[in-house]
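Format notes (please read before filing issues)

Several people have asked whether sequences and structure tokens are stored in separate files. They are not. Every record keeps both together, in the order shown below: the sequence lines, then the token lines. Line labels are part of the format and must not be stripped during preprocessing.
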Amino acid sequence: MDRRKFLTVATAATGVSLLPGTAAAADGTLPARVRRQLDRALAAGSPSAVCGVIHGGRPYVAGAAKDGEAPAPDGRTVFQLGSIGKTLTATALARAVCAGETRLDAPLVLPARFPVPRKGPRRITLADLATHTSGLPSLPPNLLAGADPHDPYARYTLDDLAAGLGETTLNSEPGSTYAYANLGFGLLGQALAFDAVDAMLWRRVAAPLRLSDTTTTLRPDMASRKAVGHLDGEAVPDWHDRVLSAAGTSIYSTADDMLRFLGAQLRPERSPLRAAIELTQRPHFTVDRDLRLGLGWHLSPLPSGRTMTWHNGGTGGFSTCTAFSRESGTAVVMMVNTFSQETGSGARPVDELTIALLGELDAD
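Then the structure lines:
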């Protein structure tokens, strides 16, 4: 893989730019609507796809695979989640804030050997990291050197991070400009639980919400249920990351787990993490009329005028998207086992299909 394409893959899942239309469907039943989006995902190049929906208070999951591929995935099939994992990190931050352990306006503090870049009079805060307004670049400047194109974060160490931060220049003053940054969320995780990020995410978010398959540790039983990732039609290895994993670079999940997570987002009052979830969904930074930032979550208007809360993700062999509307009580997650990216003419297929389905269901 050439370096330019590697950089695109390593910084995957930066966001959706446009909302597609919501054309009327001939068969308006939920299974038929989901099946149409799955068929479109396969037609766009995915070997297999799974889609989960909460609509009318009930969950529904279906999967599809191309002819000759492995059996169609279901709600327990394991995919790499990608940057949707940032919403778990943001929830962990919100839990710490609600418990009085830190503040959103607290400055980013790391061990002394990790220099925190500065630009202007204000220091980077935890809220800046969680809203992509820190001014940090998407990746540390030394990540590419010596990286494996098929597993770009695997060889990156804490020593590398310390050296990379010493070379990092902020692109804007903290708190002033939205610019999506995997590095920022990676540092947020280290600020919350230095060198123990994965255990912290499990303890503070995944376990309380009963997300048993949402983890960076691929257990043997999960390995037997895991889809194989693809890039340009070829099977590729999973991503691994111990340093910036709070950005979602190496986390696994399933459609069933994501529906549990989305159920908690739709009805936080039924969740043990109610206060934290409410804090993550609250707008904390406004980009323009089409985009506001919660903690981790992006907030955009739906054609109905309701608010869509969303995040997408991707690794070298997987693409994912999730979106929900609390006002209509509707949520959608889609996972495919191929890398995809935005084109000059539109969003990634997985993003477009997820948001189109949410808009269609939201209009009911």
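For reference, the curators noted about this record: The domain at 3-362 is CATH 3.40.710.10 (Beta-lactamase). Residues 1-7, 13-24 have pLDDT under 50 and may be disordered.
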